[in-house]
Design brief:
It is a single chain. With 274 residues, the protein is an alpha+beta fold. It has one domain. It is built from eight helices and 15 strands. The strands form four sheets. Strands 3, 4, 7, 8, 11, 12 and 14 form a seven-stranded antiparallel beta sheet that branches. Strands 1-2-13 form a three-stranded antiparallel beta sheet, covered by helices on one side. α2 packs antiparallel against α3 and α3 runs antiparallel to α4. The longest helix has 16 residues. The two termini are 37 Å apart. About 8% of the residues have low confidence.
């Protein structure tokens, strides 16, 4: 299930209400004007509105990103007002979350890969096989099952919308076929890169009694599969060709949890001095 702007907005509103103590009904939200401005800018591109929602959910590590390169286009937003000022100047910028160590002691890491390369990698490193034997002990088949990847969030590109228009102008057959091929390629999503992210709780990434913390380093996990331990996890952007980012959730909305041992091993995480 993907989380659209409305879904993320509902999560943010619920989080805001849960953190608000309404002792004086005439109190005014000092961020109301900036938040409203960000939501309004969301009519131009998804970045501003999603940034507003992420700030309500997380409150830290929310970063503007360039919609083409998906690299940070500014520093993390310290406030709604700062975000509104940025998007007023650059409304087409997207938004992401800082990877690495978080203020609450948790760690956010991600894998970047296409769907095909990720599934190929999982088949080798994230699965186990079992021989099926007949009554005489001969192997007649093999059963393969995938290991539990733990709680995670996926971010992927969704294709541009397709609209049909009727006009009195005749269109050549070749032009129609070219457009059809373009639409089919869009729907296939061939070669599109996505991300799989984990929020690892401090309880599992810090050993206070030993003064150690679990450290990840960005590196290649295999052909076309990269572990990202720093930088930005894209969360919302709209490309010039109409494709937009979709996600299955927000890491901060999940209670940071333990990550399966096989993930730790294959990601080559190390315990280092805090």
């Amino acid at each position: 299930m993907s989380i659209d702007q409305a879904g993320l907005r509902a999560i943010a509103d619920a989080r805001t209400r849960s953190l608000t103590v309404d002792t004086r009904p005439y109190d005014i939200d000092p961020d109301a004007e900036a938040r409203d401005h960000l939501r309004a800018l969301g009519g131009i591109a998804p970045g501003p509105a999603v940034a507003e929602a992420l700030l309500a959910v997380r409150g830290h590590g929310v970063v503007p990103i360039d919609r083409d390169s998906l690299l940070a286009s500014g520093n993390p937003f310290p406030s709604y007002a700062a975000a509104a000022e940025h998007y007023q100047q650059s409304p087409h910028d997207g938004v992401g979350l800082e990877l690495g160590g978080q203020p609450d002691g948790s760690t956010l890491v991600a894998v970047r890969a296409t769907a095909a390369t990720w599934l190929t990698w999982l088949a080798v490193h994230g699965s186990e096989s079992r021989d099926i034997q007949d009554a005489d002990g001969r192997v007649i088949a093999q059963d393969r099952s995938y290991l539990d990847p733990g709680r995670h969030v996926k971010v992927h590109w969704s294709p541009r919308g397709v609209s049909a228009r009727v006009t009195p102008v005749a269109v050549g057959r070749a032009a129609i076929e070219r457009e059809g091929e373009s639409v089919r390629a869009d729907r296939a999503g061939v070669g599109e890169v996505g991300w799989v992210a984990w929020a690892i709780g401090a309880a599992w990434s810090i050993r206070d009694d030993h003064g150690l913390r679990l450290a990840f380093k960005s590196h290649s996990l295999g052909e076309g599969v990269a572990l990202l331990a720093e930088g930005v996890l894209p969360m919302a952007a709209a490309r010039r060709d109409g494709w937009t980012l979709s996600c299955t959730g927000v890491p901060a909305t999940l209670e940071p949890a333990a990550v399966p041992p096989w993930i730790i091993d294959t990601f080559d995480a190390k315990w280092v001095k805090a």
